[in-house]
Amino acid sequence: MAEHAVGLEIVTPEAALFAGPATAVVMTTSEGDLTVMADHAELIGDVVPGIVKIETIEGGTISVAVHGGFVQVHTAIGAAGELLEEISDTERTTRVTLLAGVAEIASEIDLERAQASKAAAEARVNELRTASGRQSGDESAADATAALAVAEGELARAELRLSISASQM
Length: 169
What we know:
- By secondary structure, the chain is of the alpha+beta class.
- It folds into two domains: 6-108, ATP Synthase, domain 1; 111-167.
- 31% of the residues lie in helices and 37% in strands.
- Strands 2-1-9-8-5 form a five-stranded mixed beta sheet, with no helix packed on it. It has a five-stranded antiparallel beta sheet with strand order 4-3-6-7-10, with helices on one face.
């Protein structure tokens, strides 16, 4: 790996979306914005829906739409069992693992599909909000609330995909 780089892996249930070196990884957590670079302190945290920017060692930037997840920053040190004092800086590597339920490379987002998803989600949210005003009874109201939460999540994902896609143009 290049000097001053971190090893990055972005993983979804379907596949490893990105694996390789980066000079910096920028994301948003519930605590605020986070930039991870070489020799970063170890941590485990959440990642809120948004853009994860990967600064490549070639000087480019890759944007990834992440719909929430978890991040682990870990420092790998030489061979197992070696003492920290005996390891040179070149044998220490910072590794970043981002686990996301849903993520996609921004440049690969299908704009027409994202717009159609947003329109369908908006219609579903409006339909459920209208129907929830007519619901009576505890069980049906709970079902309607759950369905509305799912639809609002779908709408938020579609809006994020569109905003990230627009920022790539």
